[in-house]
Amino acid sequence: MNKLQSKFIKTVFYLILLITALISCNNGLISKTAVETLPPAKQYMAATQTQAVVAATLAALPTLTFTPTPQFIPEAWRFWPVIPEVTKKTKEIYKKGIGMGNNPHAFSKIGDYQNLRKAFLGFFDHPGSFDPLGREKPFLDTIENFKGYWDRDGESAKSGFTAASPLSPRWANPDACLPDENPMECELRIAKPSFVLISLELPFNGRTAELYERYMRKIIEYVISQGAVPILSTKADNMERDHSINLTTAKLAYEYDLPLWNFWLAAQSLADYGIDPLRDGFHISVQARNERSITFLETLDHLWKGLRDIK
Predict the structure, then answer these.
(1) Could you tell me if 37 and 116 lie in one domain?
(2) Nearest 10 degrees: CA dihedral of 191, 197, 202, 206?
(3) Distance, CA of 259 to CA of 227 (rounded, Å)
(4) CA-CA to 294 of 20 to 30 Å: which in 23, 122, 223, 234?
(5) Structure pTM?
(6) Helices (DSSP H) in the chain: which residue ranges?
(7) What is the model's pLDDT at position 11?
(8) pLDDT digits 0-9 by tens, 252-273
(9) Domain contains 185
């Protein structure tokens, strides 16, 4: 056993002790069971307190020569930051995509109703139509870089889409797509994007997280094969009642080493946690739509600026 292996085993041992202590600790921290009984906003406060203790403890652990990404385990997805970091895998994908001729000024969406331009991002192609608080001003260079793609749905974002829909040729637009081409293949062929947001959040309707995962893997792996960086996303709703879709998405982000835009966390500070109280528990409010657009702009800005100089 070399020194690196020994250090890694020791670190894992300390982490196990830490996790065990946190679960059972009653000295200023809230137990996992107690946290789950709180409203989402208070869950976040409790999680923030716990995360601070975790961070202080981790600082005392032996230093590894590598850092797994994302930083937190999938089961702790509620604690992941809203804006993701650039991962090693995204660097590899982006570099490959530029070599394949992908457009560094293009991004695509593979998504459902809540990703259509009228509810999401479209106003960024129309200066002055949004930004009551001036939040978009630090990102004007990013808005300019992707000009023309904000107010665009493309071929793989449509109302009614589930995780299976982008893989089915019957959903493809016959006026734009080739015979037997599915919407995802059609969109990536036409746009040649460097980034692809994958956000499929249609109400659950009896679908299992396992089925969602199966389709998402196919989507993720195809996007990667085309040299585009997949950006995964959590959702504000909990139609399945156990957050299994967000957990599954976090597991996929962790496994494939991909950025996860944690919109769920951003929504916790909004009225009704971002959910429109007058609708079905799935659709988000106008306030949440605006927050969703701003935080995705911040996400794309951070990823693009972290990757654009890669040769």
Answers:
(1) no
(2) 110
(3) 15
(4) 223
(5) 0.78
(6) 3-24, 32-36, 40-59, 88-99, 140-145, 183-191, 209-225, 244-256, 263-267, 286-307
(7) 44
(8) 999 999 999 999 999 999 999 9
(9) yes
